Structure formats: structure tokens, C-alpha cells
Amino acid sequence: MKIDRLLAIVILLLNRRMIQAKELSERFEVSVRTIYRDIDALACAGIPVVTYQGAGGGIGLSEGYRLDRALLNDEELAAIVTALRSLATSDPEADHPSLLLEKIQQIIPASRAEHFRFRTEQFIVDYSDWGGRGELQGVLSLLKQAISGLHPVHFRYKDAEGRISSRSFEPYTLVLKHHQWYVYGRCMAREQFRMFKLIRMREVSIAEDSTFVREPIVLEELPWQQSWNKPDNQIRLVLRFSPDRVHLAEEWFGHENLEEEEDRRVIVTCRFPENDWLYGFILSFGVHVEVLEPPHVRDRIRTMVQQMQHNYDGTT
């Protein structure tokens, strides 16, 4: 859209003393003539654009021109910059966070630029993986396109038990939770809101010939959390951690929730939904945790460990 391009040009000019029309035309994939028409439109709108002729010439703004930053203080702006950088790490293909970062940075006076940079580097959130996941990025891109255009999607889904089913789905929002991507929306067959893990989705396609009407939901209340936190869906779990893994118990459950025994082992009482994730979570602590309650969870962990031992018996 032209208005988006005009805003982007202003932001770039605010952050650079001068830029050539050819560079702008290549960046926005339009002709140089179109760029000059954009410059004329900005001038008519009151933006003090200056064109410099000659070998070292280009397009710039009048010295001292800046956007008004009265609505936000430095602390608020630093928080926004941190959030934008986090968003950029969660989706490497997204280019809008970098543009917004430029917009914010240009409204900081030069006298406070170094201090502002220091504040924005005190806290970094990196959601990216250690390795590449090209297939996942492709699914993310398709779902973003479907959400933006209000198009249903079709896909095959393999659940935690390995069962495969075909789904038709109205995607509402993408959710990054505990280093995993999910999509939340309405399952068309069951007429219920569900959340699906992206790495379990296969053969994702967009129904570009149809659209859906988005129902009003309160995303601020994180509706996908509601079923997880329902008391009816949770069990009371009592775990005992060995002394050399107390730090892991503190990380997961908090120091205030630990009950220390005489031999320096600690007891943790918590509540979780009982599902495959729970058993995988318990097993991730290896020999350093013991399930004390409830008995059926203790028995199932014992059975799983025995099955694991059987897998390795007689191997070379």
C-alpha cells in the first residue's frame, strides 16, 4: 500500500542523513519515478524532504526534524524495543519489527541515545531455536496468511497417541508457549475452539475460495489456559528430589514450595493435568526424582522405566 510505503520512507529518512532514490526503489520494489512521486507527496503533506544533487547527493530531511515523542517516556520505549526484538527472534521471516525499531530509535534525542541503547540491552528475550526448522517456518507462514485473510485451513494431524485425523479449522491466533508453536481457533467439525501443535500438522493448505466470520473472544484472558487450569483436569502430585537436583526443583516450582527433609532431599507438592506431557516431564528428571503420590502415577512411571530397561537389554 502506498501509505505504508510513505511511512516507511519517512522512518528511513529520519534514521539516515541521506539515502538514494535507487536504494529506496529497490527496497520497496517500485520504480525510481514512483519514489520521486512519493517524495513529492511527502513534501505536500508538510514533511520537510530535501533533495541533494550531485555525485554524493540523495534524499534527506531538513536538519533537526524529528517526530514528537511526548506520549512515551524512555522507560516505556525501552520496554517496547525489548518486546519487538523478542518478536523478531520468534519469527525470523518477519520484517516489520525492524521497521518499528527504527521508528522508535529515531525519536530518541542524540544526547540520550547511548543511555537508551544501554537500557534496551539489559534484558534480551530470544525465542529462536538453536537449530533450523525450515518446515515449521513454512507452516507458520501459511497460517499467518490464513489468519490475515480469514481463510479456513485443512490439514492432517497426528495427536500425542500417534492417531492421524483430517481437520478443517478456522485459525484465530498463533501461540508461542514453552518453546513450541501452536495455533488456536475453531475446529469446524466439532464446532469447538481447540489448540493444535504446529509440529504435528501435516499437508497444511489454505481454503482461499472461502472465508469465515471471526467470533469475538478475549485473547487477553488466554482462553487456551482455561482447560489446563481447571481443577477437575488436574491431579495432586508429590515428588521427592535428590539433593544434587534441588536447584531444578527450585527452578520449576519455586523455593517457597519446597519442603526440605533431614537428608537434604526436598518434597514438592504440585498440581498438573494428567497426560503424556506429565509423564515425559517426570521422566526428564531421570533418577533424581521419585513420585510419592498418587500411587497410580508412581506405578505407571515404574512400568515405563521397566519398558525402557527392556529396550536396552541385550543390545551391543
Short descriptors:
316 residues; alpha+beta; Arc Repressor Mutant, subunit A; SH3 type barrels; five-stranded antiparallel sheet; four-stranded antiparallel sheet; 40% helix; elongated; transcription; transcription regulation
Produce the secondary structure layout.
Blueprint: H1 2-15, H2 21-28, H3 32-44, E1 49-52, E2 58-61, H4 74-90, H5 96-106, H6 113-120, H7 134-149, E3 153-158, E4 164-177, E5 180-187, E6 192-197, E7 201-206, H8 226-229, E8 234-241, H9 246-253, E9 258-260, E10 266-273, H10 276-283, E11 289-293, H11 295-312
Helix pairs in contact: 1-3, 1-5, 2-3, 4-5, 4-6
CATH class of the largest domain: Mainly Beta
- What's the helix count? 11
**What distance separates the N and C termini?**
64 Å
Structural class, from secondary structure content?
alpha+beta
Element-by-element helix/strand order: HHHEEHHHHEEEEEHEHEEHEH
Beta-strand fraction estimate: 15-25%
Number of strands: 11
Domain HTH deoR-type: 2-57
Pfam families: HTH_11, WCX, WYL
Protein name: Helix-turn-helix transcriptional regulator
Keywords: Transcription, Transcription regulation
